[in-house]
Specification:
By secondary structure, the chain is an alpha/beta fold. It has 18 helices and 17 strands.
C-alpha cells in the first residue's frame, strides 16, 4: 500500500509538471527564455538537475540554447556538437533515448561543458531524449539525476516523462521557426511589391510616360530622392533633364527649400564664378554691393547645374572644392562660407570621352557621377509619343482658351518620326501645327513635314555621323565619325560660294556611313510633300547624294560657274539617267542630277538632297540652271 500511494503521488506530480510546462511554452515568444523556464520547472518539481536543451542549426551542428544548473562561466554555450559526438551527438544521430546510470564510468562522456568535477563524491546519472518535430530529430533534451547511494536502475518513468516534455518542446520550436520563416518571407514580398509598385502609386508630376524604360527612370527617381547623394542626369537635349531634376527635389525632404537652376553653358567663366559663389562689394568694376551666389541661396535645398560638361578646366577645379568640402569663398572675399546643398548635374555630352581627351577633370567626374540617371531619347519610347502629343495639344488649348484635338492619322505620322530634338521638338511641332489647324483639329496637312518646313533631317544626319549639333548628343548606336576635310578626300566638296548678299549657302549634309540612306522626310516620317501634298502616299527615297560637309573657305579656290545645259532637241531619244548619284563633283552637277531624277520638281529634289525647297531654289538661281517645263 505505501508503494501504491507513492506511485500515485509521483504520477500526480508529473501531471502537474506537464501542465506547468505547457503553460510556460505558450506564455512567451522568446524561445530561449521559455526553454530556460521549462528546465527550471523540471528541476524544482522533479529534482531533474542540470537540464540542457540542444537544437540543431542550419549547418546541422548541435548547439546549446538553454541550460539550468550549470556553474557560472561555463563554456557550454560556446561549444558545438556534431552528430555522433558525445552522448548528445549519439542521441541526435540515432534518434533514440539514452540512459547513463553512472557518468563516471561512461566512455562517451567528455565533460566538455564543465561542472562535473564532483563525480568521485556522488553518483550522477544522465537521461537524454531526442526532440522531434514532424518526424525529424531537431534537438536533444538531457537532465541529470544526483544520488549519494548509487544509481537506482529504474529510469523508465523518467524516459517516458521527458519524451512527453520533448514532444511539447519540439512542437513549440517548429511553430516558432515556421512563424519566423513566414515573417521573413512576408517582409521580402512586401519590399518587392513596394519596389515594383512605387512608380505606379506615386507618379511624378508633369512627366507623361507609360513606356517601360521611362517607368524604370521614375522608379530610380523615387529611390534616390530621399537621400542627399549627388545625381548626374544624362541624356540628349530635349529629353526633360530639368523636369527630372525638379521631380527629385520635390520628392526629397528638401522640397520646401529652394530649387536653384544654373545653365553653365550660358555664362562665361568669370560671370559663372560670380553667379555660383557670389562676390563682395568692390571686388571688380561694377560690384556695387555684396552679392550672394547660387550655392549660398540654395543652402538647405537643391542646386541644379545644367550643361555641367561645358564648364572650363579652370572652373572645374574651383567647383571640385565646393563639392568635396561644402564650403567656398565669394569672389574678392576671404571669409569661408559653409553651405548644405544637394547637387544635381545634367549633361548631354559624353563625359567619359571628355575625360579621356583631357577636357574634363577625372576627379570632378567621379565626384558628380555618384548616382547616374539615363534618360532615353523619344525615339526609344515611341509608346509615349501619342500621349505626349495629346498632352501638348491640351496644354496649348488651355493656354490659348481653345478646344483643340488631334486626329489619328496625324498621330501615326508623329509616331513614325525619329525626333532628334526629342520631347522639346515634339512640343514645338504640336504648337506650330496648332496655329495652322482649322476647325479645332490638327490633321496631317497641318504638320510641318507636310509643308516642307521640318529641318530635323539635317540635324539627325549630323547626329548620326557622330557629332554633337546644337546640343544634340551624338548617336550612341553608330560608330561613324566625320573625317577631317582634306583636298584629296573626294567625299567632301569645296566650300560653298557666297551669294550676292554675302551670305554663304547653307551647309551641305555629309553622306551616311556604311552605305545607309537618309530618311525621306525631316525625321524619317512619311508626311513629306508630294505633287498632290498627299501625306498618305510618300515618295520612296532613292540613293541620296553624299553632299559635301562644311569646311573652311580660307585656302580653297572658288568653284567656276558651269554653263547652263542646252535643252534636248525635239524628237531626240531620251538619255538614260544613271541610277546612282555622282560621287564627286561640284554642287551644280548634283543639283542637275537631282532635278532630272525627280522630273524637275524642286520639292522632290530638296527631299532627295536633304535640303529645303528654298535652299534648292536659291541654288538653281545662283548657278543659272534652267528649269525644264513639261
Amino acid at each position: 500500500m505505501p508503494s501504491a500511494a507513492q506511485s500515485a503521488s509521483s504520477s500526480s506530480l508529473e501531471l502537474l509538471t506537464i501542465y506547468e510546462v505547457s503553460k510556460i511554452l505558450g506564455s512567451s515568444l522568446d524561445l530561449e527564455q521559455t526553454l530556460r523556464e521549462v528546465l527550471r520547472a523540471l528541476s524544482y518539481q522533479l529534482q531533474m538537475h542540470r537540464g540542457r536543451v540542444y537544437l540543431q542549426g542550419e549547418d546541422a551542428a548541435l548547439r546549446l540554447v538553454a541550460a539550468h544548473g550549470l556553474p557560472k562561466g561555463s563554456p557550454a554555450q560556446e561549444i558545438d556538437y556534431n552528430q555522433g559526438e558525445g552522448i548528445s551527438g549519439r542521441i541526435l544521430k540515432t534518434g533514440m533515448p539514452a540512459v547513463v546510470p553512472n557518468l563516471a564510468e561512461e566512455p562517451l562522456f567528455n565533460n566538455r561543458s564543465g561542472g562535473r568535477d564532483d563525480l568521485d563524491e556522488q553518483v550522477a546519472s544522465l537521461v537524454g531524449v531526442p526532440i522531434k518535430a514532424a518526424g525529424s530529430v531537431i534537438g536533444v533534451l538531457t537532465i541529470d539525476r544526483i544520488s549519494d547511494e548509487g544509481p537506482s536502475g529504474h529510469f523508465g518513468a523518467d524516459v517516458r516523462f521527458l519524451t512527453m516534455v520533448a514532444n511539447l518542446i519540439g512542437q513549440t520550436v517548429r511553430l516558432h521557426r515556421t512563424v519566423a520563416e513566414e515573417r521573413r518571407f512576408m517582409m521580402r514580398e512586401t519590399f518587392r511589391v513596394q519596389k515594383e509598385l512605387r512608380p505606379v502609386v506615386a507618379p511624378v508630376n508633369d512627366v507623361v510616360c507609360t513606356s517601360p524604360n521611362m517607368v524604370d527612370v521614375l522608379a530610380q527617381v523615387h529611390r534616390v530622392a530621399p537621400f542627399k547623394s549627388t545625381v548626374l542626369i544624362r541624356g540628349e537635349s530635349g529629353t526633360g533633364k530639368e523636369l527630372i531634376a525638379r521631380a527629385i527635389h520635390n520628392l526629397s525632404p528638401r522640397k520646401d527649400a529652394p530649387f536653384i537652376r544654373v545653365n553653365c553653358a550660358a555664362l562665361p567663366e568669370s560671370l559663372l564664378e560670380s553667379e555660383l559663389f557670389g562676390h563682395e562689394k568692390g571686388s571688380f568694376t561694377g560690384a556695387q554691393k555684396d552679392h550672394k551666389g547660387r550655392f549660398e541661396l540654395a543652402s538647405g535645398g537643391t542646386l541644379f547645374l545644367d550643361e555641367i560638361g561645358d564648364i572650363s578646366s579652370n572652373f572645374q577645379a574651383k567647383l571640385l572644392r565646393v563639392l568635396q568640402e561644402q564650403e567656398f569663398e565669394r569672389v574678392g572675399g576671404s571669409k569661408t562660407i559653409k553651405t548644405d546643398v544637394r547637387l544635381i548635374c545634367a549633361t548631354n555630352l559624353n563625359l567619359e570621352e571628355a575625360v579621356g581627351h583631357g577636357k574634363f577633370r577625372a576627379d570632378l567626374y567621379f565626384r558628380i557621377n555618384v548616382v547616374t540617371i539615363h534618360l532615353p531619347p523619344l525615339r526609344e519610347r515611341r509608346g509615349d509619343i501619342a500621349m505626349l502629343a495629346k498632352h501638348f495639344v491640351g496644354k496649348f488649348g488651355r493656354d490659348n482658351g481653345l478646344n483643340l484635338d488631334i486626329d489619328h492619322d496625324a498621330l501615326e505620322v508623329l509616331n513614325r518620326c525619329t525626333w532628334p530634338g526629342n520631347v522639346r521638338e515634339l512640343e514645338n511641332c504640336i504648337e506650330r501645327a496648332a496655329t495652322q489647324c482649322r476647325n479645332g483639329t490638327i490633321r496631317v496637312p497641318d504638320l510641318s513635314c507636310s509643308m516642307n518646313l521640318c529641318n530635323s533631317s539635317v540635324l539627325f544626319q549630323y547626329r548620326t555621323m557622330g557629332a554633337a549639333v546644337g546640343g544634340l548628343a551624338p548617336s550612341m548606336s553608330g560608330t561613324a565619325t566625320t573625317p577631317s576635310p582634306t583636298p584629296g578626300n573626294p567625299s567632301f566638296a569645296r566650300p560653298q560660294p557666297a551669294g550676292s548678299n554675302g551670305a554663304a549657302m547653307p551647309p551641305a549634309v555629309p553622306a551616311p556611313a556604311n552605305g545607309a540612306q537618309w530618311p525621306a522626310c525631316a525625321s524619317g516620317c512619311s508626311a513629306g510633300p508630294t505633287p498632290g501634298c498627299s501625306a498618305s502616299k510618300p515618295l520612296a527615297p532613292d540613293a541620296i547624294a553624299p553632299l559635301p560637309a562644311p569646311q573652311p573657305t580660307a585656302s580653297a579656290p572658288p568653284i567656276p560657274s558651269a554653263p547652263a545645259p542646252q535643252p534636248a532637241p525635239a524628237g531626240a531619244a531620251a538619255v538614260d539617267l544613271p541610277l546612282d548619284e555622282p560621287e564627286s563633283g561640284p554642287l551644280r552637277d548634283r543639283l542637275v542630277w537631282a532635278m532630272e531624277r525627280t522630273g524637275w520638281v524642286q520639292a522632290k529634289a530638296a527631299r532627295l538632297l536633304g535640303m529645303t525647297t528654298r535652299q534648292v531654289s536659291y541654288a538653281l538661281r545662283k548657278y543659272n540652271i534652267e528649269i525644264k517645263r513639261f
